[in-house]
Fold this protein.
Amino acid sequence: MPKSYIREARKRVGPKKQRIRPIIERLAAEHADAAIALTFRNPLELLVSVMLSAQTTDVNVNRVTERLFEKYRRPEDYLAVPQEELERDIFATGFFRQKAKALRGTMAMLIEDFDGEVPERFEDLLRLPGVARKTANVVSSERGNAQGIVVDTHVRRISQRLGLTRQEDPVKIERDLMRLVPREDWARFPHLLIWHGRRICDARNPRCVECPLALDLCPSTRV
């Protein structure tokens, strides 16, 4: 897309600081049911689900954890079986060897350092094996204590299309979004973009004619 067109489009929709609240409000109205797609009943299941979700779909993770969480209910359960057995139980999520190793390392640390409980502090979550910033963000947000904004492929693509960031690196994108999005919306904002990406703003064929942001809030609209 020519830079001149991009500049003109940004002038048409106005500054991003003025657009962010209307963007959130319209997406919230459009996707009132936007929420995490993973199925869990407690913080431990949440943590495991998010760790397993790397490089696969939430639907696939839910299919695996439906049985997994009946067999593994406590951190001790993940350590009570050979790693090969855990690998077989999570095989369908992909990268099963790395994930099984990370899960067992996390469970051992939960038992040793946190009395078997998933820690509340963001810094403590980051200490867990296999838990990077994105996973810690998801867990914190779903527990009502968002410390940042989750950036996945949908959030990255749509925030760029909306002109909210020019960055490519997820950490830098998150930093830009945290400056714009009101803190009280940090938890729900990623869900809104994710569901918008799944339903309307497709990576290859965005349905701009159906988009509530197209005419006056999105500089990338094709309408």
In short: DSSP finds twelve helices and no strands in the chain. The two ends are 15 Å apart (CA to CA). The mean pLDDT is 95.
